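Reference record
================
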Amino acid sequence: MWTAEEEFDHEGRFFNIIKGFHQPKPIQHPHPPIMSAGSSETGARFAAKYADMVFTSMTEANETEATARIKAQRAMGRKAFGREFQVWTTCSVVCRPTEKEALDYARYYILEHGDWEAAANLSGGRRPTGPPGPGERLHSPGWGGYFLMGTPEQIVDRLIHLTHMGLDGVVLSWVNYEAELAHWISDVIPLMEQAGLRQPYTP
């Protein structure tokens, strides 16, 4: 449907299509990159065999295990399927002009207003289900992923660190997308480009 210029029929295991056609076609050629997320052995092999981008979950607390998993995933792709692919994770972001502002806001939404009951229901016991205690790292409720908190410069330093761990990209989330994404574009992306983490956008 992404590549055929004429109508086509298809009979498969899951779908039967008569006179299939799709417009508009994707911008990417021959098709958009395929991302696969799966933490089981079967899911990891499926991703290594078919995906352009493999999604893996990690936090600051399990960096050593995550680094080993990334290396093992790439090795399996090369050995079993002769393939290369990107590896991505997800990051929750709190970025502010000063470290104190970032920490104050993180404490505000995580400790004072975090809906930990909803987070426990969402994660089904697979993620931290309560607010961090004294001395513990701050982490976002629910599927927060790797927590990026600090100034634009500190955020870019952490992204460089993630790159050295073997990651090719990150999926980002914020509490207030509209305002915080605008701040990311204006204050963080230029530093990412200077650091060689991202190519300048050319329309």
About this structure: Residues 148 and 155 are 6 Å apart (CA to CA). The chain has a mean pLDDT of 89. The two ends are 26 Å apart (CA to CA). Residues 26-194 form a domain with the TIM Barrel fold (CATH 3.20.20.30).
